[in-house]
């Protein structure tokens, strides 16, 4: 949530910051701004815009910032105060000597604001962030680093900061406490950013700032200090991410590109993790002996990752015969979960920066549980705070609606469940063989569905006028129904609910009439006939049925208004395949409605605040 970029170097900062900011737009896009220290007189010039970065870019054409090689910039997802120009970052202190950008939340901002107001500081915005600029100004005694260090010690909450000052045209200060921030090391230039892709075209030498660290950067070098002001050493990582992985490469949207990347992501995962009939889970950091001792599993995650976890519960319980409890992270952290040293906590997160999931992990570790994470972003906070990490390596996911990260999380959960089942001796070798054979067929099955793009687009368009959707599934495809509904609502803004089909008669069937579309996930399975009964009950009440069914199922045609066929695969694996048409339905409905697919309203890619 919110993107930060900062630059200090020998080039003009404006185009560098603007370009990098565009690559962070997925983190928030309701307002933005850039501030630059002028090379000539060291005055700080500031430009802001409401809305997307394109608005700022247009404004800068007529009102350029002038030449300056030190600057900070920000794209915002509003927490405190409306998404207006005045609330947009960067924020000045009253003397306009200090300029800050902030990602996160300052929990004690009101207290600090009241104190500073009494001292005569004038606040212009409704944000929590503005207090930081005034506080630095209040504590400044000629040394910028020291003023930031002292300020950070007084702030409560979680945040990442970038700070510049007209008194110090040779310094960029950055601080991290709970929100992601990286440093890019270049030649005679250095950068800060919320995420690596922002500066990938400038440098691949990355330092991951740790919580409680404050960096002082000049054009020549970087020094990092802890909260007490002691200099600390740091490691420079060479990042190998490809630049094209953060570009659309001819696709209309990142979401569509990412849907299309799924076969590749999955086949890469299975090729590297399945060796004969062995599952290789490098990074797990738990030996077979440790796995044997696990008595129960708790999965924590949010949003789409939570739906992956729900599938994981079915699969792990089935294959490893261990009880699995699953919670959305925001609930887990505020109840009193019963966990101990024999509980394994699995945290699932694409970004690895989701505030609630990180808090849940901290809670679990404090109670003595071992934590492993299933995570996409290498070096993320979650990965660093877990005992073991299973990277999905799905590549950067830019579209706010998660697609390839989900199927990759499912792939990893299947692998983990098989591994655990083997270690616990709950799986016969023949069953392992069947599942492994089935997994290897999944990438091709997904490719087959992608070939149906035109048909799915047609079905989506024909149903895009409905004002309400229900998604129904049973058993292991109940989570698929939840995921289909989430995908649709977040990018089409159509109210959509996912239900276990067996729940229909307990309430939701009251919604059904000719104005409702119902997406039924009905592959061949043990609950196929039950699903057909549900479908008939909906038809009897004039609901429109879109069925996701197994190839070769001719019976379903009699019951559904539209049928999208998915290849038949090993039954337990259907969620990983069935979700693909659901992603495409959501995508094409959003396109038909003229929505911004990649940056839907009110959302941001990673939810780094509570
Ligand atoms: O980065 P994470 O996987 O932890 O993110 C969790 C959710 O915020 C995320 O899945 C969200 O629900 C997506 N927008 C869904 O498409």
Overall spatial form? globular
Bound molecules: 5-amino-5-deoxy-1-O-phosphono-D-mannitol
Termini separation: 10 Å
Strand content: 15-25%
CATH topology of the largest domain: Glutamine Phosphoribosylpyrophosphate, subunit 1, domain 1
The percent of residues in helical segments reads 25-40%
Q: Sheet bearing the most strands, described?
A: 8 strands, antiparallel
Describe this structure in words.
- With 610 residues, this protein is an alpha/beta fold.
- The chain folds into three domains: 3-245, Glutamine Phosphoribosylpyrophosphate, subunit 1, domain 1 (4-Layer Sandwich), CATH 3.60.20.10; 251-450, Glucose-6-phosphate isomerase like protein, domain 1 (Rossmann fold, 3-Layer(aba) Sandwich), CATH 3.40.50; 452-610, Rossmann fold (3-Layer(aba) Sandwich), CATH 3.40.50.10490.
- An eight-stranded antiparallel beta sheet has the order 3-2-4-1-10-9-11-15, covered by helices on one side. It has a seven-stranded antiparallel beta sheet with strand order 5-6-7-8-12-13-14. Strands 19-18-20-21-22 form a five-stranded parallel beta sheet, sandwiched between helices.
- Helix 3 (109-118) crosses helix 4 and helix 7 (262-273) runs antiparallel to helix 14.
- The longest helix is centred in the C-terminal third of the chain and has 22 residues, at 429-450.
- The structure holds 5-amino-5-deoxy-1-O-phosphono-D-mannitol (M6R).
């Amino acid at each position: 949530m919110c993107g930060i970029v900062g630059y200090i170097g020998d080039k003009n900062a404006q185009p560098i910051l603007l370009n990098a900011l565009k690559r962070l737009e997925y983190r928030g896009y309701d307002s933005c701004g850039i501030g630059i220290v002028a090379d000539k007189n060291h005055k700080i010039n500031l430009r802001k815009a409401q809305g997307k970065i394109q608005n700022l870019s247009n404004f800068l054409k007529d009102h350029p910032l002038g030449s300056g090689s030190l600057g900070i910039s920000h794209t915002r997802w509003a927490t405190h105060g409306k998404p207006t120009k005045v609330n947009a970052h960067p924020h000045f202190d009253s003397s306009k000597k200090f300029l800050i950008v902030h990602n996160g939340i300052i929990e004690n901002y009101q207290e600090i604001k009241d104190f500073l107001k009494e001292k005569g500081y004038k606040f212009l915005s409704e944000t929590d962030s503005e207090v930081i600029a005034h506080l630095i100004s209040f504590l400044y005694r000629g040394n910028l680093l020291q003023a930031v260090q002292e300020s950070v010690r007084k702030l409560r909450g979680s945040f990442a900061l970038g700070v510049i000052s007209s008194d110090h045209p040779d310094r960029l200060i950055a601080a991290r406490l709970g929100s992601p921030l990286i440093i890019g090391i270049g030649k005679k230039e250095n950068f800060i950013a919320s995420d690596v892709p922002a500066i990938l075209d400038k440098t691949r030498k990355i330092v991951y700032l740790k919580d409680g660290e404050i960096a002082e950067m000049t054009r020549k070098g970087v020094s990092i200090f802890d909260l007490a002001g002691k200099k600390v050493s740091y490691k420079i990582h060479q990042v190998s991410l490809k630049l094209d992985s953060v570009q659309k490469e001819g696709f209309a949207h990142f979401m569509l590109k990412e849907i299309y990347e799924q076969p590749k992501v999955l086949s890469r995962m299975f090729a590297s993790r399945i060796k004969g009939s062995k599952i290789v889970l490098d990074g797990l950091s738990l030996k077979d002996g440790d796995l044997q001792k696990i008595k129960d599993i708790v999965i924590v995650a949010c949003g789409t990752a939570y739906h992956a976890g729900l599938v994981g519960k079915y699969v792990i319980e089935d294959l490893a015969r261990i009880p699995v409890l699953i919670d959305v992270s925001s609930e887990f952290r505020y109840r009193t979960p019963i966990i101990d040293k024999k509980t394994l906590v699995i945290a699932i997160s694409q970004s690895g920066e989701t505030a609630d999931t990180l808090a849940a992990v901290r809670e679990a570790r404090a109670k003595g549980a071992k934590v492993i994470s299933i995570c996409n972003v290498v070096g993320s906070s979650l990965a660093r705070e877990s005992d073991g990490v299973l990277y999905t390596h799905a590549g950067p996911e830019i579209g706010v609606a998660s697609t390839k990260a989900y199927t990759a999380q499912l792939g990893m959960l299947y692998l983990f469940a098989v591994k655990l089942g083997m270690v616990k001796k709950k799986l016969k070798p023949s069953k392992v063989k069947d599942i492994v054979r089935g997994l290897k067929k999944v990438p091709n099955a997904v490719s087959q569905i992608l070939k149906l793009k035109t048909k799915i687009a047609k079905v989506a368009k024909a149903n895009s006028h409905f004002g309400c959707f229900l998604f129904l599934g049973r058993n292991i495809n109940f989570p698929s129904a939840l995921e289909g509904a989430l995908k649709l609502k977040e990018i089409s803004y159509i109210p959509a609910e996912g239900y276990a089909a067996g729940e229909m008669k307990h309430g939701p069937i009251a919604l059904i009439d000719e104005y409702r579309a119902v997406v039924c996930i009905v592959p061949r399975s043990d609950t196929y006939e039950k699903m057909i009964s549900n479908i008939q009950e909906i038809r009897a009440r004039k609901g429109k049925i879109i069925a996701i069914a197994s190839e070769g199922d001719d019976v379903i045609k009699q019951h559904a208004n539209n049928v999208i066929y998915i290849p038949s695969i090993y039954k337990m694996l259907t969620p990983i395949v069935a979700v693909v048409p659901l992603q495409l339905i959501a995508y094409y409905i959003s396109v038909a409605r003229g929505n911004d697919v990649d940056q839907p309203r009110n959302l941001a890619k990673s939810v780094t605040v509570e």
